[in-house]
Amino acid sequence: MWINTGNLIFLMALAAAAGFAFGGLVGMW
Which residues, 6+ apart, have CB-to-CB distance to 7 below 8 Å? Predict the structure, then answer.
């Protein structure tokens, strides 16, 4: 399966943002 580099970078950034948001949410508690 061919993966577009732009999509891969976008998914990695999205995962990082989600992880950061989740970490901030846990930090609030």
Answer: none
Hey, CA dihedral for 16, 20, 23, 29, is it positive or negative? negative
Distance CA 29, CA 26 (A): 5
> 5: Cβ–Cβ under 8 A, 6 or more apart, which residues?
none
Query: Which ranges in 1-29 belong to alpha helices (H)?
Result: 5-28
Cα of first residue to Cα of last residue in the chain, in angstroms, is 41
pLDDT tens for each residue of 1-29: 566 888 889 999 999 999 998 888 888 76
